[in-house]
């Protein structure tokens, strides 16, 4: 079982000696890999995932599905080339224990899957997983007919008493704290007796591209999904019951994990190419093309991938990141090095991510001499000359990569527990020094 990495080690973030000029192959998307694993496990026939991400979050997902009986064979692809996983679905069964680590996708996507298992499925995880919102999934599953034993807080740890099937049907949830509540119910929806109709009742809904990713991938697996975009009711998604197809899917590179490398081009006035950048994608990281261009670079999408070129200047930005919240730490890091202030808005829900990201960014940038204040739903960042020091990461992979971005321009930045990047990008330190030509 993948473990939490060493919390004490400090990593001296390398300073860039000049403009970077590198091609960086970024591993597969966490969000696509974990959706693909769930859909393949629920399918009526075997499927393939090519170029899956192998990281803490995706290995936890694979281990959890295996614990419920699913076959996941790691090896080469169907044509004998490249890394691929073969997924062999089966009737799901308990008793089983699922370690969610601190993976939002595992803790939210799997309780609905567990209702389809025959037997109890126990969910537990890192300490932080007890604090991350899960009430939307728990309450909705109970309303749809599931039996769940928890301690009454609407959070982990809990046991889903799988009955081998779930009635399903219409349900209301408030997903303002996480879009993953909606994705979770939709992903298992085709396997519920009556399918599922999810109505979001909250005032705001973060991370819409991630819900689109869920819908796109369900449709590609043969599910019928009605959405608000396709002329349906606002904030209502409907999934018809039916069998899911086994797919042969190549996972796109993780565009949110491409962020620190593109940021390096921006911060050093250099150039970074990320091969295999998809021409069409639901990944929120695609928004970096526009956001980092507005902050002072330019980009070109060709057959070779995405090439991002920094101009040598970094500008502040006023931007609503509600759709692309997971990009906030990297944007905040660049903004701290800019020539004008920034306002990042629409991301109050980041307080309940891997850590309270608004508090953590404010504290860590300010301890390096910065001037960041929290607002009700984001951050004000006024750039100031920064100095070296320890950048704490709070078990948050994106805090570690944010610190590395600042370290490019500021001497003496030490990242505490850079190993936490293993959540989604295990080779980050090697990739980073490789990009810098060290
Ligand atoms: O569904 C997904 O794969 C994700 C949805 C988003 O979650 P929230 O809506 O909770 O922000 C995002 O931040 C997370 O990194 C991945
Ligand atoms: C919020 C994130 O992850 P999770 O899937 O654990 O919610 C993230 O990767 O930025």
Give the overall pLDDT as a whole number.
96
The CATH homologous superfamily name of the largest domain equals: Enolpyruvate transferase domain
List bound small molecules.
shikimate-3-phosphate, phosphoenolpyruvate
Terminal residue distance? 32 Å
CATH architecture verdict of the largest domain: Alpha-beta prism
| CATH-assigned fold name of the largest domain | UDP-n-acetylglucosamine1-carboxyvinyl-transferase, Chain
Number of strands: 23
- The helix count comes to 12
Task: Give the C-level CATH assignment of the largest domain.
Answer: Alpha Beta
Indicate how many domains the architecture comprises. Answer: 2
The proportion of strand residues reads 15-25%
Class of secondary structure makeup: alpha/beta
GO molecular function, one term: 3-phosphoshikimate 1-carboxyvinyltransferase activity
Organism: Streptomyces roseirectus
Family: Belongs to the EPSP synthase family.
Function: Catalyzes the transfer of the enolpyruvyl moiety of phosphoenolpyruvate (PEP) to the 5-hydroxyl of shikimate-3-phosphate (S3P) to produce enolpyruvyl shikimate-3-phosphate and inorganic phosphate.
Report on this model:
With 438 residues, this protein is an alpha/beta fold. The protein has two domains: 10-28 and 254-435, UDP-n-acetylglucosamine1-carboxyvinyl-transferase, Chain; 30-250, Enolpyruvate transferase domain (UDP-n-acetylglucosamine1-carboxyvinyl-transferase, Chain). The chain has twelve helices and 23 strands. The protein has helices at 30-41, 56-67, 104-114, 135-143, 180-188, 208-220, 259-268, 288-294, 328-335, 357-367, 397-409, 428-435; strands spanning 10-12, 21-23, 47-50, 71-76, 83-88, 96-99, 118-124, 148-150, 158-163, 169-173, 196-200, 225-226, 236-239, 248-250, 271-274, 297-302, 305-310, 318-320, 342-345, 371-374, 379-382, 389-391, 413-416. The strands form six sheets. The protein has a four-stranded mixed beta sheet. Strand 6 (96-99), helix 3 (104-114) and strand 7 form a beta-alpha-beta unit. It is globular, with a radius of gyration of 21 Å. The two termini are 32 Å apart. The structure holds shikimate-3-phosphate and phosphoenolpyruvate.
